[in-house]
Design goal:
With 146 residues, this protein is an all-alpha fold. It has 6 helices and no strands. α1 packs antiparallel against α2, α1 packs antiparallel against α5 and α4 packs antiparallel against α5. The model has no long low-confidence stretch (mean pLDDT 90).
Amino acid sequence: MTKPIKQPITITYQRLALFGYIGLLLLMPIWLFIIAPREGYSNGFIFTIYILPLLLPLKGIIQDKPYTYAWANFIVMIYFIHGLSLLWVAPDELLWVILELVFATSMFVGCTYYARHRGQELGLKIRKLKDELAEEKAAHQNDKED
């Protein structure tokens, strides 16, 4: 069974997500290890906090799994919050902060809409809680009647 062909809008959102993801994957180590190393923090700490989370969705993104794109949004929020925080506390690093925010925003928007569109193309559906509750209620009422 072959996968449905991606629509142009789906491809656009995937490219936007990949632009943000690859951008963050390149920016963070270059920025934090080479351009402006953090004094008082070990390289292992910096790697664990700022780079390792980006590697978690790598396999699913390579395998083109819409679900991975969806949950990667939880990870990208780390970088979005980091960037917003640095706007206030590190105005001397404004260029790098803006790049981080651009990449994080691109990844968030791209991942969100790619997961949605590709999921629809593949026929994946997330059941609504309302429907699940109605089914549970009906099953419970059937059990009472028996």
